[in-house]
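Before relying on records like the one below, remember that each one covers exactly one chain. Contacts with other chains, cofactors or solvent are not represented anywhere in the record.
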Amino acid sequence: MTSPLLNNRYRIIQALGTGGFGETFLAEDTHMPSRRCCVVKQLKPVTHNPQVEQFVQERFGREAAILEQLGEGHDQIPKLYAYFTEQGQFYLVQEWVEGVTLFQKVQREGLLEESSVREILANILSVLDYIHSNGVIHRDIKPSNIIYRKRDEKPVLIDFGIAKEIMSTTLN
């Protein structure tokens, strides 16, 4: 039996993680000839107040527009493919970055040499400079949010913490 499609398009392959505000899945895009893999992030609002839900939806749309702009402008930020709501849940669909996180790399290899740390910082600082020049703050930089992309070994900054931002604004 095949799993149901999200937005009549995305088939969940496996869960990637769960956070306080939602879940992240690896999915395939059934509308693309390649059936490319993508990441689907589900944001779960914690309210049943229609006014708050309307606010969350507006904020979600603005945050998705920011992610789209950032992903199109820098190759070390995943591209946004889509965003949608379905059955009261909010979803982002982003480029799947195949590779290992900095956290996994340190677990496997142990402490990194100073030269490696400097190289990581130089690579990530250019990404941060780009996002800051666009008026955006990442909000959740940590080793598990930096993925070494398999195809070129460049560090890619993932998970901009928009769910956290949207929900904390909503709860306040």
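The chain has four helices and nine strands.
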